[in-house]
DNA sequence: TTAATAGTGTCTGTTAGACACTATTGT
DNA sequence: ACAATAGTGTCTAACAGACACTATTAA
């Protein structure tokens, strides 16, 4: 009996660690975030960020990759850990510490059929529904980190397809940082920070002078 | 019996989460790190960074504060999380994910009597003994973060007592970044970044013109 | 008075940021 | 030709970084 109680104690109080992911994508010139609808208790039917418990045989990063792949079918995203959340009461099931990642999807990525269905959907950052657990806090900090990274210019190309114009790159920068930038100055700056390679190719089917396509190396 | 096995399974495979701390202090103009000697298996007798499992009722930060206080008797250090370590085999006891913090101690802090004894000792960064687990990796990344922070100037005053001279501050900067800096330029820079307040007081018992003592606000 | 370190200003080359016109394509 | 966007250089004000002398204290 004592053993059973001890077992129950372990069952109830086992500490678990989860990877949660804030998945960003620019859709229709708006920064969006993926939120899923919970299918099981607790908070059944409510929305939260995608995530999952870390398994015995995987690192936090591997768990994040697994969750990301499950929700989107895409591999090889930009994926980076940005913080941990360890409040004692953040999960009603018991003690769950969360390692939080943010991911960036290329605009126009072809995703699983169930993304854009109600249960797995991108929401513009300004129209996020109520999220359960402490996921509003997680999202807030993810967004801060994203903007910091965008300032350096580090992550901009990850929002864009393999070939992109400098103008597209600038628009991503402006969207993330809520700012307007001079075209010539922007190009001087990124010329220092990146090794962008001109592919020689051009846009086509545009009703104006086509821009040169660049790629990131 | 099946229950017992299941219990054993839980015991063996329970995932635990620990807070490990890299405690920096400048001693005799050298950047030093605290390493403790393990008193229990595994790796009994070997050295590692101080750390401890996170308890049911505390956050990662609270666990870090607890460990830090246990080792040094000091509270209210600078303490910041800088990364997580989740390799599957990083701890032979089982699955332990570690949340890593770095702490900064004021030069000349009065510490527990057992610091400087063999079992709990500061080591110059260049003369660290072999550390078990993956603690060399943890230390390496902590040091990188420390240097990043020092570049901004954010953390310099935490290495110094409450009242300090600008020259001391500069020496901390140079020590952390392996660099020599012009005195006048350094003072111009920190004048922008910090609100340092002159206390009006001066050094005493120095065989030269005494410097003004500043404090950090 | 000497030894030792504190404290302070200027000059220059580089950089960030404002700013406007010509080039190339589709229709 | 016209509509629409691509692409490109200069000027200026601010800043970072090199540099050397006078001031103040203890002995």
Write a concise synopsis of the structure shown.
The structure is a homodimer of 217-residue chains. Chain A has 5 helices and 9 strands. Chain A is an alpha+beta fold and 217 residues long.
Describe the structure.
Chain A has 217 residues and is an alpha+beta fold. Chain A is built from five helices and nine strands. Chain A has helices spanning 2-13, 60-72, 135-152, 166-177, 183-193, and strands at 16-27, 30-37, 47-48, 51-53, 78-85, 96-105, 120-124, 196-202, 212-216. In chain A, the strands form two sheets. In chain A, strands 1, 2, 3, 4, 5, 6 and 7 form a seven-stranded mixed β-sheet that branches. The longest helix of chain A has 18 residues, at 135-152. The model of chain A has no long low-confidence stretch (mean pLDDT 90).
The portion of residues assigned to helices of chain A is: 25-40%
Distance between the termini of chain A: 63 Å
Regarding quaternary structure, how should these chains be classified? homodimer
Helix tally of chain A equals 5
Mean pLDDT of chain A: 90
**Strand content of the residues of chain A, in percent?**
25-35%
- Provide the succession of SSEs of chain A: HEEEEHEEEHHHEE
Estimate the global geometry of chain A from the Cα principal axes: elongated
Counting DSSP E segments of at least 2 residues, the number of strands of chain A comes to: 9
Task: Name a few traits of the molecule.
homodimer, 217 residues, seven-stranded mixed sheet, two-stranded antiparallel ribbon, 5 helices, 9 strands, DNA-binding
